Amino acid sequence: IRKTMEVSPIPVVTVQTVPYDDQRPGTNGLRKKTVVFESKRNYLQNFIQSVLSSIDLRDRQGCTMVVGGDGRYFSRTATEVIVQMAAANGIGRLVIGHNGIMSTPAASCIIRKIKAIGGIILTASRNPGGPGGDFGIKFNVANGGPSPESVTDKIYQISKTLEEYAICPDLRIDLARLGRQDFDLENKFKPFRVEIVDSVEIYLNMLRSIFDFSAIKGLLTGPDQLKIRIDAMNGVMGPYVRRILCDELGAPANSAVSCVPLEDFGGQYPDPSLPYAASLVEAMKGGEFGLGAALDGDGDRYMILGQNGFFVNPSDSVAVIAANLSCIPYFRQMGVRGFARSMPTSTALDRVAKAMKVALYETPTGWKFFGNLMDSGRCSLGGEESFGTGSDHIREKDGLWAVLAWLSIVAARKQSVEEIVREHWTKLGRNYICRFDYEGVDPRAAHYMIRDLEAVITDKAFASQKFAVGSHVYSVEKADSFEYTDPVDGTVARNQGLRIIFTDGSRIIFRLGGTGSSGATIRIYAESYEQDPEKHNRETQAVLGPLIAIALKISDIHERTGRRGPTVIT
């Protein structure tokens, strides 16, 4: 390992700055249009200083931090600034992904493995990249998971009063060179160390300890192999997919598509959903592939498709994985402790929990809520309707983990994706669910709509309300503004979405989205449960039409937002 000890120590400089008042991190870090980070004076430096200052000085001195990201435009510049500022702020060692690239699950894995104090992940997840796209900075804590509210609040408070930041402007590192680089700093008694690591290798070794690789390899190779198509959407996951699925597990090289990480994701949204992964959907409709998957920009979200384009709803995906955990060695060894889902996710997982006699936790949206449950040994698996699933092997949702979980289930059960899902419905019933997103809504209009709607549904009179749509009558059983008391530390999260639950188990949910870069997003969810297998083949929109009609009527959303309909339906 070559050492690059500078001849004269590198100076540490303190720079005067003016605070910004809009650096409050959302559910997944600070996300803005790239131009904000790129052109607002010290915008990036201010936020990085606020993150570093949020770590107690005693803990910061000489500690280790992880840095990575999805490789989107502006990441290189940002990584350089983070390195220079971490050095100046007394961080002892940085572990950085090769070329600055590291998936979010791999970052979580590495933070935990090397017992780092935390990590800075440069990503805006499934949002578009490039000069006209979005950029984001996310701080994960020592358990490898997203910052809890107490930490993001602290970062925000610091950012509002910041007057200066510390930086080593002359410090230069080579992100392309694997290995160790040491730097002598002025007034620092120990050298500052940077390690550039192959995160793919580290993440692969973790997966190898969880899954039965030979069973998956047997499925993907040999005479009656399962042909798969995995679309990395030109995000961070390309190198991971190639190395793990192709080189290690034997899938043919042409199974992996869009595997070159691009700064603008090829001009597409790196979002693994039906509208944005249209080319994968088309390829699957040809019938040649038995399983298809798309992975998002930073690798924590995924979508599964069966042969002929059979779509596995994310709420069903987590339920099916939960019901089949015994196909995965990790769970045979560790046992299954409990399941968790975000409140808008369908109740399909609840039915599995009940059948398996394990606890079910319903949390607000945001993976950080699962972290506490997992850390305290209460939860083995969690899932969100927004295409995220993960287990307690790390503290983030994990797209490739979920794909390997599906491959493990297919290998063990020797059935197709569609057969597995349909058999699940036959056993436990089918939960139809859909989501309407109204994006870029005027924030004031969105706020007042939700406020007024809350007044309507929490009024005493609403509790006995009945809605007749066609031949169907829906009777309200309960309506509230969802709040969550963390069973581990007792903290309370309020105003986490409005929900109306009907006597037949149907639900309507209204929620303001939390991680957009412009305007507000209003999400409306509708869910209904169908036990009768004769009725498991219906069109989701046809089944949920009456509930959507009720939702539109009581919220008056089109009138209030000036919209004719949703931006996206999933």
Q: Mind telling me which CATH architecture of the largest domain this is?
A: 3-Layer(aba) Sandwich
Quick one: CATH class of the largest domain?
A: Alpha Beta
Tell me about the largest β-sheet: 7 strands, mixed
**What fold name stands as the CATH topology of the largest domain?**
Alpha-D-Glucose-1,6-Bisphosphate, Chain A, domain 3
Rounded mean pLDDT score: 96
- In CATH terms, the superfamily of the largest domain is Alpha-D-Glucose-1,6-Bisphosphate, subunit A, domain 3
Number of domain units: 3
How many strand segments?
A: 27
Give helix % range.
Answer: 25-40%
**Which outline best applies?**
globular
Instruction: Please state how the strands of the largest beta sheet are arranged side by side.
Output: 2-6-5-3-4-9-8
Strand content is 15-25%
The low-confidence parts are: none
Q: State the end-to-end CA separation.
A: 50 Å
Supply the number of helical segments.
19
Q: Rg from C-alpha positions? A: 24 Å
Secondary-structure-based class equals: alpha/beta
GO biological process, one term: striated muscle tissue development
Domain Alpha-D-phosphohexomutase alpha/beta/alpha: 23-165, 202-308, 316-427
Subcellular location: Cytoplasm
Family: Belongs to the phosphohexose mutase family.
